Every structure is written in structure tokens, then in C-alpha cells.
Amino acid sequence: MNTTREKIVMDKEEIATALKRIAREIVDANKGTKDLVLVGIMNRGLPLANRIAKIIEGTEKVNIPVGSLDVSLHRDDIRKKGSKIEVKRSDIPFSIDGKIVIMVDDVIYAGRTIRAAMDGLADYGRASKTQLVALVDRGHRELPIHPDFVGKKVSTSMDEDVIVNLAEIDGVDKAVVK
């Protein structure tokens, strides 16, 4: 990990603006909200999904179901990480069959978390379409997985980390490169 100081790449206002834009893009791309559900990838994808749902609900005057998905048991490095993996409880209290599922995560990097999320989502049914939101896209993909909606693309080196802090978990909204 790089030992230099952190560089803020998104502050509270930039995150709020990005989420408003993403919410609008989701509605536009799907020609409305019919059959739309959001699934936040734990941990920080869930508060982002909740925020996006609230924005859509405020503009479209509809209820958008939100669920959470833990990908721990679907990771391709589970044998390597083993006991370091903390399994959490997924909560998708609605059917995804025939729905447009918008998966939400804070950062996309190699694409492996999203591959695990797609495997995990399959345990809940068959969506008509699955789309991906990433608040920050830092590049360096190892798998051919790319987000449909992005808050901000950030160029990073392989030895840097992108950390997203959210008020619901961390008490502050910001994204930094370390």
C-alpha cells in the first residue's frame, strides 16, 4: 500500500451529485421504474442503494425495493482468505424473477466482487436484466465486467487503494485514494 497521504477524489457534495445523476440515468436507461429493484453489495453498496432508491422515489413517486447481498461465500479467493472472511446475512425480501436488478457497489476494481455478486444473485432467482452501479471506477479490470452507471472514474496505480467512506457507516461521506 502506498504510504503517501490520502487524496480526496469525491467529497460529500460530489457524492450526492453523482448519486442524483446515477438515479436519473437508471430511470432513463430503463424507460421508467417498472420492475426495478436495487441490491446493495455489502457493506457500502447497501447505503448507496438506499440513497439511490430514495432519490428515484422522490422524483418518480414510486416505491423501489432495496435488498442487500453478501458475496463472501461466492468469492473466488475463499480458500486463500478462509477464516479472514466475515460472512454476513444477505437480505433480499422480494422476488428478483423477471425484475431489472440494479446491483450497487462503492468501488469497482478487478471485477471479482461483481462476479461473486452475480453468482450470489442467481441464488435468488432469474432477473430479466442485471445492471451495475459503481460509485468509483478505478480501472485495472481482471474480468470483462464493467459498470453501467458510474459516479466517477479515477485513475489509480496498482499499489494505491480507493476507500469510500459513507456517513451511515463511517460518519462522513468521501472517497479517497491512498
Can you identify the CATH class? Alpha Beta
The helix content, as a percent range, equals: 25-40%
Radius of gyration (CA) equals 16 Å
Strand arrangement within the widest β-sheet reads: 3-2-4-5-6
CATH architecture, please?
3-Layer(aba) Sandwich
Number of helical elements:
5
Distance between the termini: 8 Å
Average predicted confidence as pLDDT:
93
Oligomer: single chain
Under CATH, the topology can be stated as Rossmann fold
How is this structure best summarized?
The chain is an alpha/beta fold and 178 residues long.
What does this structure look like?
The chain is an alpha/beta fold. The protein has one domain: Rossmann fold (3-Layer(aba) Sandwich), CATH 3.40.50. It is 30% helix and 25% strand. The protein contains five helices and eight strands. The strands form two sheets. It has a five-stranded parallel beta sheet. A three-stranded antiparallel beta sheet has the order 1-8-7. Helix 2 links the parallel strand 2 and strand 3. Helix 1 crosses helix 2. It starts with 6 loop residues before the first strand and ends with a strand. The model has no long low-confidence stretch (mean pLDDT 93).
Summarize the SSE layout with pairings.
Layout: E1 7-10, H1 12-29, E2 36-41, H2 45-60, E3 66-69, H3 78-81, E4 100-108, H4 112-122, E5 129-137, E6 149-153, E7 162-165, H5 167-170, E8 174-177
Parallel strand pairs: 2-3, 2-4, 4-5, 5-6
Antiparallel strand pairs: 1-8, 7-8
Helix pairs in contact: 1-2
